[in-house]
Amino acid sequence: MASTGKIAAFLAEPRNAIGAGIGNDGRPHLSPNWFYHDGQRFFVSTTRGPVKHTIFRRDPRAHLVIDDCTGFRAVLARATAEIGEDTAAALPRFRAIRDKHAVAAPAMPTIFGPGPKKGGCCWPSPPDTPPSGWTCWGPH
Asked: In this structure, is the dihedral angle defined by the CA atoms of residues 38, 85, 91 and 36, taken in order, positive or negative?
Protein backbone atom coordinates (compact mmCIF):
# COMPACT_ATOMS: atom_id res chain seq x y z
CA MET A 1 0.00 0.00 0.00
CA ALA A 2 1.30 3.43 -0.91
CA SER A 3 1.96 5.92 1.87
CA THR A 4 -0.52 8.73 2.44
CA GLY A 5 2.17 11.26 1.46
CA LYS A 6 2.89 9.50 -1.83
CA ILE A 7 -0.83 9.33 -2.62
CA ALA A 8 -1.25 13.04 -1.82
CA ALA A 9 1.71 13.92 -4.08
CA PHE A 10 0.24 11.79 -6.90
CA LEU A 11 -3.19 13.45 -6.53
CA ALA A 12 -1.57 16.90 -6.59
CA GLU A 13 -0.23 16.29 -10.10
CA PRO A 14 -2.35 17.66 -12.98
CA ARG A 15 -4.33 14.71 -14.31
CA ASN A 16 -7.93 13.65 -14.86
CA ALA A 17 -10.20 11.81 -12.49
CA ILE A 18 -12.56 9.46 -14.26
CA GLY A 19 -15.82 9.66 -12.35
CA ALA A 20 -18.18 6.71 -12.66
CA GLY A 21 -21.86 6.86 -11.79
CA ILE A 22 -24.93 4.81 -12.67
CA GLY A 23 -26.83 5.93 -15.76
CA ASN A 24 -30.62 5.80 -16.14
CA ASP A 25 -30.38 2.45 -17.91
CA GLY A 26 -28.24 0.94 -15.13
CA ARG A 27 -25.00 0.96 -17.09
CA PRO A 28 -21.92 2.77 -15.80
CA HIS A 29 -21.48 6.35 -16.98
CA LEU A 30 -17.85 7.50 -17.08
CA SER A 31 -16.70 11.09 -17.27
CA PRO A 32 -13.14 12.47 -17.34
CA ASN A 33 -12.79 15.53 -15.11
CA TRP A 34 -10.18 17.86 -13.80
CA PHE A 35 -10.21 17.67 -10.02
CA TYR A 36 -8.72 19.01 -6.84
CA HIS A 37 -8.13 16.91 -3.72
CA ASP A 38 -7.84 18.82 -0.46
CA GLY A 39 -6.71 15.84 1.60
CA GLN A 40 -10.24 14.82 2.51
CA ARG A 41 -12.48 15.39 -0.49
CA PHE A 42 -12.26 15.31 -4.25
CA PHE A 43 -13.69 18.41 -5.93
CA VAL A 44 -14.89 18.33 -9.53
CA SER A 45 -16.45 21.32 -11.23
CA THR A 46 -19.32 21.01 -13.65
CA THR A 47 -22.39 22.92 -14.75
CA ARG A 48 -26.03 21.92 -14.60
CA GLY A 49 -26.11 20.71 -18.22
CA PRO A 50 -23.90 17.60 -18.36
CA VAL A 51 -25.28 14.13 -17.76
CA LYS A 52 -22.99 13.64 -14.75
CA HIS A 53 -24.85 16.41 -12.90
CA THR A 54 -28.18 14.64 -13.44
CA ILE A 55 -26.76 11.22 -12.56
CA PHE A 56 -25.21 12.30 -9.27
CA ARG A 57 -28.29 14.27 -8.21
CA ARG A 58 -30.31 11.08 -8.69
CA ASP A 59 -27.80 8.62 -7.22
CA PRO A 60 -24.70 9.95 -5.43
CA ARG A 61 -22.73 6.70 -5.52
CA ALA A 62 -19.48 7.30 -7.37
CA HIS A 63 -16.20 5.63 -8.13
CA LEU A 64 -13.13 7.70 -9.02
CA VAL A 65 -10.10 6.53 -10.96
CA ILE A 66 -7.07 8.77 -11.20
CA ASP A 67 -4.35 7.27 -13.35
CA ASP A 68 -1.04 7.92 -14.99
CA CYS A 69 -1.00 5.84 -18.15
CA THR A 70 2.67 6.57 -18.81
CA GLY A 71 3.91 5.48 -15.39
CA PHE A 72 1.49 2.66 -14.54
CA ARG A 73 0.25 4.45 -11.44
CA ALA A 74 -3.35 4.75 -10.30
CA VAL A 75 -5.62 5.48 -7.36
CA LEU A 76 -9.19 4.15 -7.21
CA ALA A 77 -11.59 5.40 -4.54
CA ARG A 78 -15.28 4.91 -3.92
CA ALA A 79 -17.03 8.12 -3.00
CA THR A 80 -20.37 9.79 -2.44
CA ALA A 81 -21.05 12.79 -4.67
CA GLU A 82 -22.49 15.86 -2.98
CA ILE A 83 -23.73 18.46 -5.45
CA GLY A 84 -23.08 21.97 -4.21
CA GLU A 85 -24.72 24.74 -6.20
CA ASP A 86 -23.60 27.75 -4.19
CA THR A 87 -21.26 29.15 -6.83
CA ALA A 88 -19.86 31.90 -4.64
CA ALA A 89 -18.97 29.46 -1.85
CA ALA A 90 -17.40 27.02 -4.34
CA LEU A 91 -15.31 29.63 -6.15
CA PRO A 92 -12.11 28.81 -4.20
CA ARG A 93 -12.46 25.15 -5.27
CA PHE A 94 -13.05 26.11 -8.92
CA ARG A 95 -9.94 28.27 -8.80
CA ALA A 96 -7.92 25.48 -7.13
CA ILE A 97 -8.90 23.09 -9.93
CA ARG A 98 -7.86 25.59 -12.61
CA ASP A 99 -4.64 26.52 -10.78
CA LYS A 100 -3.69 22.85 -10.46
CA HIS A 101 -4.01 22.47 -14.22
CA ALA A 102 -2.21 25.79 -14.92
CA VAL A 103 -5.26 27.44 -16.50
CA ALA A 104 -5.98 31.03 -15.48
CA ALA A 105 -9.42 31.52 -13.98
CA PRO A 106 -11.53 34.10 -15.80
CA ALA A 107 -13.57 36.73 -14.00
CA MET A 108 -16.49 35.33 -12.06
CA PRO A 109 -19.31 36.45 -14.41
CA THR A 110 -17.70 34.65 -17.35
CA ILE A 111 -16.40 31.53 -15.62
CA PHE A 112 -19.65 29.59 -16.14
CA GLY A 113 -21.39 31.43 -18.95
CA PRO A 114 -25.03 32.50 -19.26
CA GLY A 115 -28.15 30.37 -19.43
CA PRO A 116 -30.41 28.36 -17.15
CA LYS A 117 -28.38 25.17 -17.52
CA LYS A 118 -25.13 26.93 -16.72
CA GLY A 119 -23.94 28.09 -13.37
CA GLY A 120 -21.38 26.55 -11.14
CA CYS A 121 -21.83 23.24 -9.46
CA CYS A 122 -19.14 21.62 -7.44
CA TRP A 123 -19.13 17.91 -6.89
CA PRO A 124 -17.31 17.45 -3.57
CA SER A 125 -16.93 13.76 -3.02
CA PRO A 126 -15.80 12.46 0.33
CA PRO A 127 -14.22 9.05 -0.17
CA ASP A 128 -16.02 6.19 1.56
CA THR A 129 -12.74 5.04 3.14
CA PRO A 130 -9.42 6.66 4.09
CA PRO A 131 -6.49 6.31 1.66
CA SER A 132 -5.49 3.03 3.32
CA GLY A 133 -8.73 1.54 1.94
CA TRP A 134 -8.19 2.76 -1.63
CA THR A 135 -6.84 0.59 -4.40
CA CYS A 136 -3.46 1.98 -5.47
CA TRP A 137 -0.59 0.89 -7.61
CA GLY A 138 2.52 2.75 -8.54
CA PRO A 139 2.62 5.77 -6.18
CA HIS A 140 5.08 4.13 -3.74
From this structure: positive
Please name the residues in contact with 127: beta carbons below 8 A apart, sequence gap of 6 or more.
41, 42, 64, 77, 78, 79, 133, 134
Whole-model pTM: value is 0.78
CATH of the domain at 35: 2.30.110.10
Look up residue 117 and give its DSSP letter: T
Residue 115: domain span: 4-104+111-137
pLDDT tens-digit series, residues 3-46: 889 999 999 999 999 999 999 999 999 999 889 998 888 888 77
CA distances from 100 to 8, 16, 96, 106 (A): 13, 11, 6, 15
- In the beta sheet, which residues pair with residue 34? 16
Percentages (nearest 5) of helix, strand, coil residues in the chain:
25, 35, 40
Q: Give me the percent of the chain exceeding a pLDDT of 70.
A: 84
